[in-house]
Amino acid sequence: ITIVTDETKLGLKDEFDFEFPGTGDVIPIKYHEINITSQKTLNFDGRDENGKKVVTKDDDGNYYLNYSVTLNNPTSLDTLSFHDAVGGKQKYDGAVTISGANKAVQVNPSVSSTSNGQEFTIDIKSALGINGNDLVPAGTYTVTYRTKLTDADLKSIDDNAEVAAETNKADWTTTGGKKIIPNDITVEVRKAMSGTAASSAITIRPS
Question: Would the N or C end of the chain have less CB density within 10 A of its end CB?
């Protein structure tokens, strides 16, 4: 028998009484809350003259932001998907690596444009090759990807805007449509206001 309820009905209790329809028989059903957590990180690979973390550029003046989003899941799940959205000038660059369930795979998701940037969604269960009738096992799942800020992107920043924001928001969707949302990340694209060419005066650091 499958019983469907919601958090509103359960309230703060750790059990609820279920009445079998048409019988009047009542049984207590105990449950415990499942704590699924997620964390997002961004690798800052350098430091400025003041020792603050920054993203360094390559020989062509391009910057790469390397993100990792981890899900810590203590239970089996019917479904699991991952959604990510970036805002600003950055664009997704290259394949996305997914690890979990003793596997690691690379996928090239379908990226869509938004009013403020780009986004993609990946069915983690399908990407890891988990059979449709099988559960997603408990464990840690990590999605790793990078975005790129080109020299041309940086030069296109409004000369009057000393700081531009590059944002990254993500969420996981699990059984029953439950959302697990990690921390958002925003980085500052900061340039000198001395008239120096933007590409040679950019600093990218945590906001």
Answer: N
